[in-house]
């Protein structure tokens, strides 16, 4: 089971330091989405600007798993922290109804697409995000995928365990077309024992994908294993390699 965890209970209307480690800074802010929703957002960045990556204008926005099953931004803290320690700016946020964000979560995730777009636009206006990489985990993958063509600054998309399987498609099937028809470079990362999507289902779906589309299979790993901290470093390296190829 996924457990909703609140690591911090602090939201501010402007950027303010939230937590510091030896080599990264985490700041908290509140981003306005549609319908008056306020999204609790965290920005992870290198403490020392001199160690920042060459992709200084690139921001990586991570979209968490299904909020109705307890998914929240805390599940992506490990990946975001590792990306920041490697010199990237990474952003996590609670979609509507999750964690400290206001509003109500939806069953199919279409309202949450508006939240992804709102965070991306806020980053462009306030953090100088000239290029954005969208990364979606589990149910966050179809939600992020539907936002790709709505934000012109998005230069790439990474899916971590996209739920293409039959049962999951009952909820998220209407999101498939948006990412599969997008010319934006795409990378689909999945464990070979995913449980929600088989390797054959993934390959069959991606046959209809437009533009550059890649896969990275992690042998013997299940859907929820890949979401765990044990694989944060490996997933971070996969994301970094994809960025270097853009």
Automatic annotation (TrEMBL):
GO molecular function: hydrolase activity
Pfam families according to UniProt: Peptidase_S15 (PF02129)
Organism domain of life: Eukaryota
Domain called Xaa-Pro dipeptidyl-peptidase-like: residue spans: 35-126
Protein name: Xaa-Pro dipeptidyl-peptidase-like domain-containing protein
Organism name: Capsella rubella
């Amino acid at each position: 089971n996924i457990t909703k965890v609140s690591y911090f209970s602090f939201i501010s209307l402007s950027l303010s330091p939230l937590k510091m480690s030896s080599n990264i800074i985490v700041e908290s802010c509140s981003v306005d989405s549609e319908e008056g929703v306020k999204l609790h957002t965290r920005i992870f960045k290198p403490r020392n600007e001199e160690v920042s990556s060459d992709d200084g204008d690139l921001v990586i926005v991570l979209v968490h798993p299904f909020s109705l099953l307890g998914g929240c931004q805390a599940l992506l803290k490990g990946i975001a922290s590792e990306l920041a320690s490697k010199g990237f700016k990474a952003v996590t946020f609670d979609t509507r109804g999750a964690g400290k964000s206001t509003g109500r979560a939806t069953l199919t995730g279409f309202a949450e697409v508006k939240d992804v777009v709102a965070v991306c636009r806020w980053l462009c206006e306030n953090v100088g995000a000239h290029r954005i990489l969208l990364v979606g985990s589990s149910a966050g993958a179809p939600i992020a995928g539907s936002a790709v063509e709505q934000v012109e600054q998005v230069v790439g998309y990474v899916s971590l365990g996209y739920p293409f399987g039959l049962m999951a498609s009952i909820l998220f099937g209407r999101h498939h077309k948006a990412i599969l028809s997008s010319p934006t470079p795409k990378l689909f990362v999945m464990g070979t024992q995913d449980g929600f999507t088989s390797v054959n289902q993934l390959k069959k779906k991606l046959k209809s994908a437009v533009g550059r589309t890649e896969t990275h299979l992690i042998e013997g790993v299940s859907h929820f294993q890949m979401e765990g901290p044990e694989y944060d470093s490996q997933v971070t390296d996969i994301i970094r390699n994809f960025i270097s190829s853009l």
